[in-house]
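Deviations from the work plan: none for this task. Representative record:
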Amino acid sequence: MMSLPFLLFACGLAAAWTSRREAAMGFWVAGVLMLLVLFRFHATDVLNLGL
Amino acid sequence: MTADLSRLLNALGLIAIDTVLVVAFADQLWFRDLPCPLCILQRLGFIAAGFGVALNLIFGPRPSHYGLTILGAVAGGLVSLLQILVNIAHGSSYGNAIFGLHLYSRALIMFTLIVVGCAIMLQFDRQFAPAEPLPARMTVLPVSAVALLAALALGNVISTLAICGMGLCPETPSGYLILNDNLNLTLLGKAP
């Protein structure tokens, strides 16, 4: 599952290389959304910081 | 700043990002320092940031491409910042320190530099003037930088699959899960 965003970015680069800019940006958005979702799953430590 | 100079600087910037990812891979393979889940997310942040730079090289510089780079760097920087704060709060650290700083601390510095670099590049409007189609004009440096980023993205697909399998990654990886669990081969990573 964590390898999926890397694959999305690789597909995006391939799309960019073949001059499909909109598709490339779509893959980028999907990759970053996936990054944020995975961050939500892995950011499990509670920080007791006095801000 | 002309579009050509902008492309040269973008190519150098992308090579710098590629270098960070190559060093992370070298640390993983040579020193058997397996990446934690947050470390993998920071690698994703670098690739997301490098993606915008690669678009600048392929399609020519555009503000929207710099925007992608900044957003990718901010996403990766948030992950680095969380990891630093967690380690401060717990009085712990993860992985090898390289010249006194852990990779996640260096990553935060690098993400900050990427954002600052983009902000500086965005000050030069002449680079956004329409130019002739780029692919025929791409030289060895930009082509190599983009190709290396794509290769590193694919390399990370294989590496992450090997470490984490098909699910979420273990908080403290002790070896290559796919090799250990599915194929029952010798550990390539640290001994458990």
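The longest helix of chain A spans residues 21-42.
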